[in-house]
Description:
51% helix; globular; 13 helices; eight-stranded mixed beta sheet; alpha/beta
Amino acid sequence: MESIFKDRKIAIIGSGLIGQSWAMIFASVGYKVTIYDILQHQIDNALKQAEAQLKNLAEKGLLRGKLTHDQQFSCISGCTDIKETVKGAFFLQECIPENLEMKKNLYKQLDEIIDDNIIISSSTSTFMPSQFSGDMKHRAQVLVSHPVNPPYYVPLVEIVPSEHTKKDIPITTRALMSEVGQKPVVLSREIEGFALNRIQYAILNECWHLIADGILSVKDIDSVMSDGLGMRYAFLGPMETAHLNAEGFLSYCERYSKTINAVSQTFKPVPMMEGQVMEKVAKELEEMCPLEDLEKRRKWRDNCLTLLSQMKNDL
């Protein structure tokens, strides 16, 4: 009888929230997952949090995969020995803080202990893979798999190779991400901000100007997205939305390209998010969601995202 568990190991470097989410995602289909951190109490806390989250998801009927929450948690272990963590793993997901020197030091350390077959994948949202792997002898095995926070609830993963990454590495990584229920996209090459953050920053920059110029309040800006654009973008991307808003994309361009260009010419330079406008935005956001309610609001967000994901899968 075929085992419900997989006889393959995945290493997670970093036991924070992103590391915990990745561990839960990989365990959902039965992979053996080892979480590494330098302090045992951090690992103990990560395991405790992961177990509680899996149990909570199961109680709400939102657990991924076919395994029970106990079976999934049994796939996850912790270790304070990085050599032991990496040993026998075919895939490694790095989840340490966004500090370039810290990443360079870690990858230098990994370079001395990994074999020629393991894939080294970074969760970074900030750095291109060549920035921390360029000097490695195993640099051809390194790429970025950037998740969207929180990864367990939002399935997109941006897979970003460097110019040194072997051609089969993104293909294998994409297959793994699809297997565990994520939605991977593969960039042809590395670029600052990847795709998601470039789009996100463009939106934030324009929102900033609309608030700074007194056009809309913070609450109304968010309503433009949550009650307008966001509702259709949750199911359709901007390109297919345009395709459907006319008789195909060629028709859309014929109708609207001049207007889009004319409005875009009025966009202002990229702002620095600081000063009085920053304080104004923070004040209005804290009126909408006080700082003491952030965790409660995050849980509400995560539940909404999970329900949305299930709805999309059922359509």
